[in-house]
């Protein structure tokens, strides 16, 4: 994580790394509020103009927790032609893809149709944002791959959207957010997992989202930093729900990616789950194996914001547990807490592990030759 | 396992209230009448279903009644085997769950009165925690002041999940009273269920609620630190009870990283979060959420970068370990002594008091 205040792309060019990398968390933005309209039926243009998105939180405009910087993004990431950070393909190529030698970039669009209460609108927006990813991004730059955005609270609609994209090389995963109406293991979300398993793509769970629940078990905290740090707690609980509801038992070929929520907590969560499961397994007979085994077998982790302990060996101890074969490098471009590829890994990593971390794991998981 | 050191302090013991009628002698006429007339029977929290395996270790369960109901059993099972010098009682009766602050207050007062008469007066090694109706700060402070005159009360007890995050300024008069009276705030696993029990809603199973306690502690420590509780009350100690602690190192890496990034939002946080934890926050030993391998545990202790954070606990009668292996394997004798004796005495100033017979509140 670093704060970037210098403008232009020269800083990035200076820190370019030699080998090709995968960036598994890129956030493409719309240049204008109406950029999605060509992909939406007219009735929704009028609906949006009149009622907006009826979200599972109170703010019509502006986030409940104001970000640290405009759009939570780097100040040097505004495209020269105007529009918000992340809204220009040519500037993304110039600032991110070319200088950092990105061979594979996974797009995770945010502020889409997820987390809104009108589920028909949610489904229409999901389809639109997926068409928009092809039109604006993946068809124009073959390094970029899209994520299938789905109406997260409407299982059948989400499953239909996933099946519509089956076999489409523009997409490499299904995208969910961590905070929903219910914990992610609940059966209302099973059609999503079933469809993802069927078409053979992983389900990525990105930190964030609103589902109507306070974002802590004691209600709403005060500060942006609490929301940011708290993403890891929400993600832990969502993953516990997925394991304890038996999702990974029912969908044994399902692979999942935990995106932008850290991975340092993985061992302690798995140990706690195992320990408690040994005592309470009679309550969850559908969980047939120790929870840590499901986590090790089915879960991948993006790296940004990279765990950053004082002592390098502490980082390596955590990675040993998680597995060097399960980490996917990500920058979170264009967000302010961007991880600089050349500075993320401390010295002392073998060539094999470095290659897996930066590129190999992602290519394998996402089926990119 | 590592052998316990004689003369230790067990910081997390749970005496059970047999029945709401057990508290009737400690209520005034109005509330006695309310309980009786309205047919109230018991206040059992979802957090610990009485027959759940984790709520009572099999060999600690009585033939009849709730685990932890008898002083004699508690002494026999949890005090004598470890040669414990002091045992701190943390009642988990569901008094905080009721929605009326008046009723919660009456039940908390009764519970504290019951603890003195039925427990503290019966064994000189026992110490108590003051249970407060946290939804009313005014009533909480009054109850703390009422009970604090009995020096056998060594901390104030709150649940980790309640009406709002614990760092909120709303609660600060409670912390001011605790700092003034030399009482740490013990924060125990459990919810008053005024909010969904996890940060992503209601799960299906008891096991999910239990696992989620660890995440609840994490968000509360964030709240306490970033709201500035320890900048305002630097002498205040807080003890996380039945929280687990193996999540602490990686949690602090993340909190530290974001604090560096956005500290302009909370400029009163003028020390690194890990430093604040080391000076003001402690953790009970059980549950030890790690495999029973000395190598793993020693790596964790190295990651904690402090040997002063952990306080011995059995979590009696909850089932966290078998036999008498309350201390995990591989601890050095020095660390075992710190966990069992030095660290609890540093956290609980009132343990130093030589307690004669006290006036009962």
List keywords for this structure.
heterodimer, A: 369 residues, alpha/beta, 39% helix, B: 361 residues, TIM Barrel, 37% helix, globular, disordered C terminus
Topology:
The complex is a heterodimer of chains A (369) and B (361).
Chain A: H1 10-14, E1 21-26, H2 42-51, H3 89-97, E2 102-107, H4 119-138, E3 144-149, H5 155-164, E4 171-177, H6 190-199, E5 203-206, H7 224-244, H8 247-250, E6 256-259, H9 266-280, H10 291-298, E7 299-302, H11 312-322, E8 327-328, H12 341-344, H13 351-366
Parallel strand pairs in A: 1-2, 2-3, 3-4, 4-5, 5-6, 6-7, 7-8
Helix pairs in contact in A: 5-6
Chain B: E1 9-13, H1 29-37, H2 71-79, E2 86-89, H3 101-118, E3 126-131, H4 137-148, E4 153-161, H5 172-181, E5 185-191, H6 206-226, H7 229-232, E6 238-241, H8 248-262, H9 273-280, E7 281-284, H10 294-304, E8 310-311, H11 333-347
Parallel strand pairs in B: 1-2, 2-3, 3-4, 4-5, 5-6, 6-7, 7-8
Helix pairs in contact in B: 3-4, 4-5
Structure description:
The complex is a heterodimer of chains A (369) and B (361). With 369 residues, chain A is α/β, with parallel strands linked by helices. Chain A has a single domain, classed as TIM Barrel (Alpha-Beta Barrel). Chain A is 39% helix and 11% strand. Chain A has 13 helices and eight strands. Chain A has helices at 10-14, 42-51, 89-97, 119-138, 155-164, 190-199, 224-244, 247-250, 266-280, 291-298, 312-322, 341-344, 351-366, and strands spanning 21-26, 102-107, 144-149, 171-177, 203-206, 256-259, 299-302, 327-328. An eight-stranded parallel sheet of chain A has the order 1-2-3-4-5-6-7-8. Chain A is globular, with a radius of gyration of 20 Å. Chain A starts with 9 loop residues before the first helix and ends with a helix. Mean pLDDT of chain A is 94; it is low at 1-16. Chain B is an alpha/beta fold and 361 residues long. Chain B has a single domain (9-352), classed as Alpha-Beta Barrel (TIM Barrel). Chain B has helices at 29-37, 71-79, 101-118, 137-148, 172-181, 206-226, 229-232, 248-262, 273-280, 294-304, 333-347, and strands at 9-13, 86-89, 126-131, 153-161, 185-191, 238-241, 281-284, 310-311. An eight-stranded parallel sheet of chain B has the order 1-2-3-4-5-6-7-8. In chain B, helix 3 packs parallel to helix 4 (137-148) and helix 4 (137-148) runs parallel beside helix 5 (172-181). Chain B is globular and about 55 Å long. The model of chain B is unreliable at 356-361 (pLDDT under 50). The chains are: A alpha/beta (369), B alpha/beta (361).
């Amino acid at each position: 994580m670093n704060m970037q205040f210098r403008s232009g792309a020269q800083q990035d060019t200076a820190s370019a790394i030699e080998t090709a990398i995968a960036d598994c968390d890129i956030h493409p933005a719309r240049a204008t509020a109406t950029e999605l309209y060509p992909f939406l039926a007219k009735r929704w243009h009028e609906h949006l103009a009149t009622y907006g998105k009826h979200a599972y939180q109170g703010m019509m405009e502006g986030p409940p927790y104001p970000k640290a910087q405009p759009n939570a993004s780097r100040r040097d990431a505004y495209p020269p032609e105007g529009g918000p950070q992340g809204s220009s393909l040519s500037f993304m190529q110039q600032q991110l893809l070319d200088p950092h030698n990105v061979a594979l970039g996974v797009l995770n669009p945010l502020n889409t149709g997820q987390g809104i209460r009108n589920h028909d609108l949610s489904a229409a927006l999901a389809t639109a944002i997926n068409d928009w990813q092809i039109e604006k991004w993946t068809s124009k730059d073959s390094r970029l791959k899209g994520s299938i955005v789905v109406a997260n609270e409407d299982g059948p609609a989400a499953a239909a959207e996933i099946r519509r994209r089956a076999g489409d090389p523009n997409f490499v995963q299904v995208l969910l957010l961590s905070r929903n109406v219910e914990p992610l293991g609940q059966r209302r979300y099973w059609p999503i997992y079933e469809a993802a398993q069927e078409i053979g793509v992983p389900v990525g769970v990105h930190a964030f989202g609103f589902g109507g629940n306070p974002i802590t078990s004691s209600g709403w905290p005060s500060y942006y930093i609490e929301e940011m740090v708290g993403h890891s707690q929400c993600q832990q609980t969502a993953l516990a729900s997925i394991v304890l509801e038996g999702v990974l038992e029912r969908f044994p070929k399902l692979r999942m990616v935990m995106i932008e929520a850290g991975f340092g907590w993985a061992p302690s969560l798995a140990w706690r789950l195992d320990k408690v499961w040994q005592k309470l397994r009679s309550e969850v007979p559908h969980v047939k194996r120790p929870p840590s085994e499901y986590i090790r077998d089915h879960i991948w982790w993006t790296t940004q914001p990279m765990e950053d302990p004082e002592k390098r060996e502490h980082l390596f101890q955590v990675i040993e547990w998680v597995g060097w074969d399960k980490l996917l490098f990500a920058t979170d471009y264009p967000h302010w807490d961007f991880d600089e590829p050349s500075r993320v890994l401390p010295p002392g990593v073998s060539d094999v592990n470095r290659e897996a971390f930066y590129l190999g794991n992602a290519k394998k998981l996402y089926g990119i030759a | 396992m590592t052998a316990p050191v004689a003369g230790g302090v067990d910081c997390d013991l749970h005496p059970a209230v047999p029945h709401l009628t057990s508290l009737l002698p400690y209520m005034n006429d109005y509330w006695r009448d309310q309980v009786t007339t309205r047919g109230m029977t018991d206040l059992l929290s979802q957090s610990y279903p009485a027959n759940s395996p984790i709520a009572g270790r099999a060999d600690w369960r009585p033939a009849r009644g709730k685990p932890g109901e008898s002083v004699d059993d508690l002494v026999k099972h949890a005090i004598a085997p470890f040669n414990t010098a002091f045992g701190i009682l943390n009642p988990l009766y569901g008094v905080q769950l009721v929605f009326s602050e008046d009723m919660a207050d009456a039940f908390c007062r009764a519970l504290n009165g019951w603890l003195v008469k039925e427990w503290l007066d019966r064994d000189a090694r026992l110490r108590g925690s003051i249970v407060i109706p946290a939804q009313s700060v005014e009533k909480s402070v009054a109850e703390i002041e009422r009970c604090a005159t009995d020096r056998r009360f060594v901390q104030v007890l709150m649940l980790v999940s309640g009406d709002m995050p614990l760092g909120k300024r709303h609660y600060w008069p409670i912390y001011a009273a605790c700092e003034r009276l030399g009482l740490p705030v013990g924060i125990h696993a459990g919810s008053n269920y005024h909010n969904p029990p996890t940060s992503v809603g209601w799960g299906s199973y008891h096991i999910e609620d239990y696992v989620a306690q660890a995440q609840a502690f994490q968000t509360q420590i964030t709240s306490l630190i970033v709201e500035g509780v320890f900048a305002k009350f630097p002498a205040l100690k807080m003890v996380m009870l039945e929280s687990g602690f193996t999540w602490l190192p990686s949690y602090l890496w993340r909190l530290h990283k974001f604090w560096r990034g956005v500290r302009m939002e909370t400029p009163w946080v003028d020390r690194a979060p890990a430093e604040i934890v080391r000076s003001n926050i402690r953790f009970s030993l059980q549950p030890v959420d790690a495999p029973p391998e000395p190598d793993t545990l020693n790596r964790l202790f190295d990651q904690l970068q402090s040997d002063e954070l952990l306080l011995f606990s059995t979590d009696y009668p909850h089932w966290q370990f078998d036999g008498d292996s309350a201390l995990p394997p591989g601890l050095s004798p020095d660390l075992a002594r710190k966990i069992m004796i030095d660290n609890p005495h540093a956290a609980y100033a009132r343990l130093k008091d030589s307690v004669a017979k006290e006036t009962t509140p």
